[in-house]
Write a structure and sequence with these properties.
5-stranded mixed beta sheet; Methylamine Dehydrogenase, Chain H; single chain; 355 residues; mainly beta; disordered N terminus
Length: 355
């Protein structure tokens, strides 16, 4: 398969909707409003979730201020070399970046997207799965190059990934179940693997180079041979209702091959890349917690947070005890992230539910 190459100029700012979380208990709560155009977007805490500040500023021309206060947030990604550089993946508003820890945001990619990837070897290299295309940037998003165009009707690009050990090698997942690979930054592509009857909604890779494919109700799949063959590593959880409905997956900093799996049943941790799984005890009964986002302290893996509509839960002992914290607004808390350099700093992204 040959890609279509096209230099894409960065378009103007595109704003959409928003998201956030609701007040949960009587713990102290401080909100600093940074926008009069909406109470969604991004909130920042510098005391482990005790107090929150609205961080949505984009620009101000004369007296007109532009913000992301009406943007729905799906996920945060940190630059692997500078934690002040943070990216947000949104629903319908593309990708935004801050280079000063959320003091100001700039849109680097407009429009809808399936996934976003950062090259861990060179963070200037970025990739986006958007619609039926894969786009790549080698200048931190200033300009984009279309490196793959899917021509099959109704087939879109779900995910994209840079190989941690080889920046020229990229993987992409299609909605038809294909795992595509390029070894020349997108000049040529080949089919590496095909899932039959389902597709990968997201691709991830551990520092050990093990690859993971998240699916909708078909488990979590792992490849240890660069993506050639795959095995379902949560088959053992099949009997737990909702465990196959994978909502998110995070790297567990406690061990080199550690994973944290977020499902409709609850949260599981694996110390060995998915060979075994341990259930994290939550306040709610299994299958009843509507978990929207999860974050783990990158320097203390015993400290874990999960957000539900209406509140934020924190444990400092791996789940033995939990504390309830308040959220700044009543929208859905769809994204959580903890600064890898200063774990006292947290980011919350919210989604406003349409009425």
């Amino acid at each position: 398969m040959q890609p279509h190459w096209q230099r894409v100029s960065l378009t103007g700012i595109f704003l959409a909707f928003l998201f956030t979380g609701v007040s949960c208990d009587s713990s102290s709560l401080t909100i600093t409003t940074g926008s009069s155009t909406g109470d969604s977007g991004v909130y920042k805490s510098e005391d482990n979730g005790g107090h929150w500040t609205h961080k949505v500023f984009v620009d101000k021309v004369k007296k007109k201020e532009t913000t992301i206060g009406a943007v729905n947030i799906r996920r945060f990604l940190f630059d692997p070399q500078d934690s002040r550089i943070v990216y947000i993946i949104t629903d319908g508003s593309g990708i935004w970046r801050t280079v000063n820890a959320a003091e100001q945001w700039k849109q680097i990619f407009a429009g809808g997207l399936g996934d976003f990837a950062i090259d861990h070897r060179d963070p200037n290299n970025l990739a986006v799965a958007s619609g039926n295309t894969v786009n790549r940037s080698d200048d931190s998003g200033t300009s984009w190059l279309r490196v793959y165009l899917e021509t099959r009707p109704g087939v879109g690009m779900n995910s994209v990934l840079f190989d941690r050990s080889n920046s020229k090698r990229m993987l992409a997942a299609t909605s038809a179940g294909d795992i595509l690979v390029t070894s020349d930054l997108g000049a040529t592509w080949d089919v590496l693997h095909r899932f039959e009857g389902f597709s990968a909604s997201r691709l991830l890779q551990l520092p050990s180079r093990a690859l993971y494919a998240v699916t909708h109700n078909q488990g979590l799949w792992r490849s240890t041979d660069q993506g050639n063959t795959w095995v379902n590593v949560i088959e053992i959880l099949r009997e737990k209702p909702g465990a196959y409905d994978v909502r998110d997956i995070l790297f567990d900093p406690a061990v080199p091959n550690g994973l944290i799996l977020v499902t409709n049943y609850g949260i599981f941790r694996s110390p060995d890349g998915g060979e075994t799984w341990n259930e994290v005890t939550l306040i709610a009964r299994p299958g009843t917690a509507d978990i929207k986002s999860v974050a783990v302290n990158p320097v203390n893996a015993q400290e874990l947070f999960y957000a539900v509509p209406g509140g934020l839960y924190r444990t400092k002992d791996g789940g033995a005890h939990w504390t309830t914290l308040s959220l700044p607004v009543g929208h859905l808390p769809t994204a959580l992230a903890i600064d890898w350099y200063n774990p006292s700093i947290m980011y919350l992204g919210v989604t406003k539910v349409k009425k």
